[in-house]
Write a structure and sequence with these properties.
- By secondary structure, the chain is an alpha/beta fold.
- The chain is elongated, with a radius of gyration of 34 Å.
- The chain has 36 helices and 31 strands.
- Helices cover about 45% and strands about 15% of the residues.
- The protein has an eight-stranded mixed sheet.
- The structure holds phosphoenolpyruvate and magnesium ion.
- The site of magnesium ion (MG) has 5 residues, from helix 31.
Length: about 900
């Protein structure tokens, strides 16, 4: 027979799956000898059985009998007895806390008879009738499903009849009459009388808690919190104690440390002569907990002692609910307390310093997401601000600035000292300068992997994208919100990239001392910064994964280095072909013959060499993986529609078309699916001179750095390889060029040549590719796109909301690695790559390289490093360490 019920004396905190968080902790406290009222917990397994069968399991009633009897013996009173009745509370309690989502019924056991007994025992008819009317109301609403308005209406009428406004103005007699009215409501609305058998009340309350697991709001909450639907809730049945028996009674909540800041000390609130629900409801003003020292010195000293015991026992911040009934202290709940990100770091560090936990445990107690929160400047939460749009929270932070609608204006205004927000329908590589000079970016199209989002994250700029309600008109330099507010160029807006919200006007910003510290600026002696520093350093000591950065410019590379990157894992070379160099690329594309093409390429060589010299000096001594050109060539040419229109106009007016040659080239290069078109190595094979030039530039830059006494460590990476042969061709040419430059310059150039693995075919043939590739770097952006077959630029707004709601996935696969699909391909490629070339270096440089959950996967699958945007380097360092020390020991309720 399955055991469905555990007395508080039988369980412990390791049994949270079965007893729920609340039940397990009540049992733990009982086991520790702390003053917990007697009670028992009905398991989540019983709930699951109920939800499957639709009825209460057959043996449950017998078990409840047995445990109820034991509880009555412990309490020395019987449930609902007329004289000094025992009352019980029935509360839900799932494995993960779901505050307020499920049912609770208090004062079970009160009947028309026992209410009189309670009045006599408590010496307060008001208390007794108030408890009874609360039971009728709670029971009516939750168990019998009666609309709360009926009870609220009757209460209101009672107050009106007496000419008073507060609940407390109703005396015992008024409340007695109100209970009669409540009973009528129950009869009229549910077609049955309120049960006068306490045991029937109990059974119905238990069933209603079980059923409340599946209410819409509980389901919605679980979806938002990623809590599985099949866990079920436990039910805790506990003897009631009363904090409202007079001035020697009261109730409160307490924390063993400040959950907001993490500061040491005892924090909490106390409410004299009240029940727990009154504290939560905020009906009366509470007192700070330390006032209890004067009011009830005995129970206060006992409470402090218990709090010390609990913190030592749980080795963490505990939050506590307690009640004092006529001078006697009772513990009603404890759990490892929720805390802010700042408190998480300070508490972990303090507990480590106090010797309560070791350094590994301190590392487990914090998360990369918490560190990310601490690194962004924030908007001052107290400021009043008008929200004008919401969108995808694409790159976190808080940015305030004047609106500009194009890149050139962004650069010009920034040069004049203005903080600007670049507002575009969507961005493209031409906007890079604008993005660099803007504080924030706002777009009306695209998701988390749109151009604006990826570049903004890379640059550490705040970005909200896909704010679809905005009508952006760059031609007239204004946008209009859904409410019809018109924002014109120069107006100030505030963009919250952490929440995905846009505000009108200037919202005050609070800078992050943690980010300032990582950037190498002096922040004085700040306890939080010290805690973060210690914990991240420990993570470095423990992690097996290296952390590199994706950086395309010397400035980014320098920043990444300050933030602790051990190299550049991806230096994209695309942007090096923009700006004034675009003309050269245009010449290259339009070249009539080989000679013309080679001349254009030759002109690019010194520029590229200078780029690489700069970045290699910034990263002297550290590896820099330089990726050869990737995007489709037509991206470097003018817009096709515009050119076509110009040509048509010229023709109609009988004028010679100035750009016919250009238009022909644009048409020739136009692709319906550029992401699947002539990108990456395909380009390199079709125009071999282009990659030759890049390889030579890298080689010459390395030689120059060597001759200058530097320690350059460039690696050459080929994008979008699908077959080993592609790589063989490019690698052979590259090796030849390296040898040439080595001979010319008289230095050794043993540069490694490797590849991105970003197509399923590359992953599936990784063994063959590894015969040539000296390293792999997983391009998980393209690998996700091509494995799923959906476009990284278009789908997030189009159908991801539906997919998330339908739980095709619980998080965007562009954000967190899809372990089951993309992850499997990676695992396969890792195994095949290593088998073919033991010691092959393996990394990842897609956006997932900075995502905490994905970093855990990359650790597990055995990569050597992750590469992420510079700003995320500390976060990745922390998560790499956390992955190495493994899961927590069960003492932390991370939700
Ligand atoms: C990738 O595909 O994951 C990658 C890093 O390359 P890009 O984003 O430049 O295509
Ligand atoms: Mg790619």
């Amino acid at each position: 027979m399955t055991k469905y019920v555990y007395d508080f004396t039988e369980g412990n905190r390791g049994m949270a799956d079965l007893l729920g968080g609340k039940g397990a902790n009540l049992a733990e406290m009982t086991g520790m000898g702390l003053p917990v009222p007697p009670g028992f917990t009905i398991t989540t397994e019983a709930c699951r059985a109920y939800l499957t069968a639709g009825t209460i399991p057959a043996d449950l009633s017998y078990e409840v009998d047995t445990h109820l009897h034991a509880m009555e013996i412990a309490a020395g009173r019987k449930l609902g007895q007329v004289d000094a009745p025992l009352l019980v509370s029935v509360r839900s309690g799932a494995r993960f806390s779901m505050p307020g989502m499920m049912d609770t019924v208090l004062n079970i056991g009160l009947t028309d008879d026992s209410v009189v007994g309670l009045a006599a025992w408590s010496g307060s008819p008001r208390l007794a009738w108030d408890s009874y009317r609360r039971l009728l109301q709670m029971f009516g609403e939750t168990v019998l499903g009666i609309d709360a308005q009926h009870f609220a209406g009757a209460l209101h009428a009672a107050k009106e009849a007496k000419g008073v406004t507060g609940d407390l103005d109703l005396d015992g007699d008024d409340l007695r009459q109100l209970t009669a009215r409540y009973k009528e409501i129950i009869r009229a609305e549910s077609g049955r009388d309120f049960p006068q058998d306490p045991r029937e009340q109990l059974d119905l309350a238990i069933e209603s808690v079980f059923a409340s697991w599946n209410t819409d709001r509980a389901r919605t909450y679980r979806r938002a919190e990623h809590i599985p639907d099949d866990l079920g809730t436990a039910v805790n049945v506990c003897a009631m104690v009363f904090g409202n028996l007079g001035d020697d009674s009261g109730t409160g909540v307490a924390f063993t440390r400040d959950p907001a800041t993490g500061a040491a000390g005892v924090y909490g609130d106390y409410l004299a002569n009240a029940q727990g629900e009154d504290v939560v409801a905020g009906i009366r003003n509470t007192l700070p907990l330390d006032r209890l020292a004067d009011l009830h010195p005995g129970p206060y000293a006992q409470l402090l002692d218990i709090m010390r015991t609990l913190e030592k026992h749980y080795r963490d911040l505990c939050d506590i609910e307690f009640t004092i009934e006529r001078g006697t202290l009772w513990m009603l709940q404890t759990r490892v307390g929720k805390r802010t990100a700042a408190a998480a770091f300070r508490i972990a560090e303090a507990l480590h310093a106090e010797g309560v936990i070791d350094a590994d445990e301190a590392l487990r107690r914090v998360t990369g997401a918490q560190l990310a929160q601490l690194m962004f400047p924030r908007f001052d939460g107290n400021a009043a601000a008008r929200r004008i749009a919401t969108g995808v929270a694409a790159s976190p932070g808080a940015a305030v600035g004047e609106v500009v609608f194009d890149s050139d204006t962004a650069v010009a205004r920034a040069a004049a000292g203005a903080a600007v927000i670049l507002v575009r329908r969507e961005t493209n590589p031409d906007d890079l300068d604008g993005l660099i000079h803007a504080r924030g970016v706002l777009t009306s199209r695209g998701g988390k992997t749109s151009h604006a989002a990826v570049v903004a994250r890379g640059l550490g700029r705040t970005c909200v994208c896909g704010a679809e309600s905005l009508d952006i008109d760059p031609d007239v330099r204004r946008f209009t919100t859904a409410d019809g507010i018109v924002v014109t160029e120069g107006d100030v807006i505030s963009v919250d990239g952490t929440a995905g919200v846009v505000y009108l006007g200037r919202v005050p910003v609070v800078p992050s001392p943690v980010a300032e510290y990582f950037e190498g600026r002096d922040v004085g002696d700040d306890e939080l910064v010290r805690a973060v520093d210690h914990i991240v350093r420990h993570a470095d000591a423990r992690s097996r994964l290296g952390v590199r950065a994706n950086a395309d410019t010397p400035a980014d590379a320098g920043r990444a280095r300050r933030l602790g990157a051990t190299g550049v894992g991806l230096c994209r070379t695309e942007h090096m072909f923009l700006g004034e160099r675009r003309a050269l690329v245009e010449r290259l594309i339009l070249a009539a013959d080989d000679a013309e093409r080679e001349a254009a390429i030759a002109a690019l060589l010194p520029l590229q060499r200078a780029d690489f010299v700069d970045i290699l000096s910034e990263m002297d001594g550290l590896p820099v993986t330089i990726r050869l050109l990737d995007p489709p060539l037509h991206e470097f040419l003018p817009d096709r529609t515009e050119l076509t229109a110009q040509a048509a106009v010229a023709k109609a007016l009988g004028r010679p078309a100035t750009s016919e040659r250009l238009l022909r080239a644009v048409n020739r290069l136009h692709e319906e699916n550029p992401m699947l078109g002539m990108r990456g190595v395909r380009l390199g094979l079709v125009i071999p001179g282009l990659y030759d030039m890049q390889v030579r530039a890298i080689a010459e830059a390395s030689a120059a750095r060597l001759r200058a006494g530097g320690h350059p460590h460039a690696e050459i990476m080929i994008p979008l390889i699908g077959d080993a042969r592609e790589l063989e061709i490019v690698a052979a040419r590259a090796s030849g060029i390296l040898a040439e430059v080595a001979a010319e310059s008289g230095v050794d150039l043993p540069l490694e040549i490797g590849t991105m693995i970003e197509l399923p075919r590359a992953a599936l043939t990784a063994d063959r590719i590894a015969e040539t590739a000296e390293f792999f770097s997983f391009g998980t952006n393209d690998l996700t796109q091509t494995t799923w077959g959906f476009s990284r630029d278009d789908v997030e707004a189009a159908f991801f909301p539906t997919y998330l709601a339908e739980r095709v996935f619980t998080v965007s696969p562009f954000e967190t690695i899809d372990r089951d699909g993309v992850g499997r391909l990676i695992g396969l490629a890792v195994a095949m790559g290593r088998a073919a070339r033991p010691g092959i270096a393996l990394g990842v440089c897609g956006e997932h390289g900075g995502d905490p959950e994905s970093i855990r996967f990359f650790h597990e699958v055995g990569l050597d490093y992750v590469s992420c945007s510079p700003f995320r380097v500390p976060i990745a360092r922390l998560e790499a360490g956390r992955a190495a020390v493994g899961d927590d020991d069960g003492s932390v309720d991370s939700r």
